[in-house]
Amino acid sequence: MPVVAEEVPEGTAWFCLRTQPKHEHIAATHLRRYEQIEVLNPRVRYARATRQGPIWVTEALFPNYLFAKFDWKTSLNRIHYSNGVSGIVHFGNRWPTIPEAVIEELRRLVGNEGIHDLGERIREGETVTIAGGTFHGLEAVVNRVMPGRERVTVLLDFLGRQTTVEVSANSIVRAGIKR
User: Fold this and answer.
1) Based on the structure, what is the number of domains in the chain?
2) Are 67 and 146 members of one domain?
3) Fewest CB atoms less than 10 Å from the CB: which of 14, 43, 50, 128?
């Protein structure tokens, strides 16, 4: 049974695609192989605390979604049945499009690589979590950053009192990024 759409733009437009779980990169790779289809898969990179120390993780900015620009009338089936894609976001017979300005703002945020790096330098006064070592998992406040030595001093509550400890800048992550 053919799809009848009430509101579909003429020509190419940006649409939001739903992907299979954790398959955004796979869907984007397959869609990029088609001519006349433009794909935006914005991602973020950040440090995650583990017992072995922080590790860098890259994940989709919008889990299970990505954006593609195509002509709805000629490419709908090809897009819908692409590897990693589970569907095109629509509401009944309404197929919403994403304004070009929104896509441009996302591109500005993620740059040419499509990745927004959340690994900016830690600053004094920030709350951090210590990753790995003796104090793994404890939250602390950064007292002083010593960039030349790649170390920081942090103030943490340990054994019922506040203690200042010097740790490697590579062994801390911003508080709240534990997952």
Assistant:
1) 2
2) no
3) 50
